[in-house]
Specification:
The complex is a heterodimer. Chain A is an alpha+beta fold. Chain A is built from 3 helices and 4 strands. The chains are: A alpha+beta, B alpha+beta.
Chain lengths: 152, 69
């Protein structure tokens, strides 16, 4: 994390993160007290989750300062600025959500169909077994009857 | 958005992908994984995002970063 000259007081209480992200959205007053830009730097596994928290506090990734990620060292530098994502990004994100939802729905339906097919197969197998058992019992009964008849 | 997936993948130039990610963060998603080959602004990157809360420690660190900025 980089240090800057002015320190901003953040009044938004986000210690307990609510289930709905809207609930932790800062008010305009809160945002006016926040610094315009924040730079996160460090290990990716620290920086990325922290950037999510900042995004939920009204920051976006600075388009003028592209995220720098160094796979070799696992370090990242993310420049974030107060603001809202542009319309193009929102549209793209919504499309990604819709695509992912469609894929998950297809996979869910596929798994339901597979489970239904397994159930039908199991039922058919059970029915065949019941029929075979009945045929065996009938054959055994007939054999016993024949033996009795032969013995008589 | 009628249905919300539990996971999604963003792929493309890093600048636009991160802009989309910023919006998704406000919709309840967070990063699950990221794959980037090079630290070049226009390079292709892949971000995997999942629905979920942000850890309290990460929120505290973010607040600290705001305080220090």
């Amino acid at each position: 994390m980089t240090k800057a000259a002015t320190a901003a007081k953040v009044t938004t209480d986000v210690t307990a993160v609510p289930a709905a992200p809207e609930a932790m959205a800062p008010t305009f007053l809160d945002m006016s007290k926040q610094p315009r830009t924040v730079v996160l730097s460090g290990m990716t596994y620290n920086v990325f989750p922290q950037s999510v928290a900042l995004a939920r506090l009204g920051y976006v990734y600075d388009a003028a300062m592209p995220p720098m990620v160094y796979p070799q060292t696992n370090m990242a530098i993310l420049h974030m600025t107060l603001g809202a994502p542009d319309e193009f990004a929102v549209r793209g994100a919504r499309e990604a959500v819709a695509d992912a939802a469609a894929i998950e729905e297809r996979e869910f339906l596929k798994s339901v169909e597979a489970a239904a097919a397994r159930m039908i197969e199991d039922q058919a197998k059970a029915a065949r077994k019941t029929q075979q058992d009945a045929e065996i019992a009938a054959a055994e009964a007939a054999l016993v009857a024949l033996k009795k008849a032969a013995a008589a | 958005m009628s249905a919300v997936p539990t996971q999604l993948t963003l792929t493309g130039p890093s600048v636009s992908v991160f802009q989309q990610a910023a919006y998704l963060c406000t919709q309840g998603f967070k990063f699950a994984d990221w794959q980037m080959d090079q630290a070049i602004p226009s390079y292709q990157c892949t971000l995997i995002m999942v629905l979920g809360k942000v850890d309290a420690a990460d929120i505290a660190a973010a607040k600290k970063a705001i305080g220090q900025a």
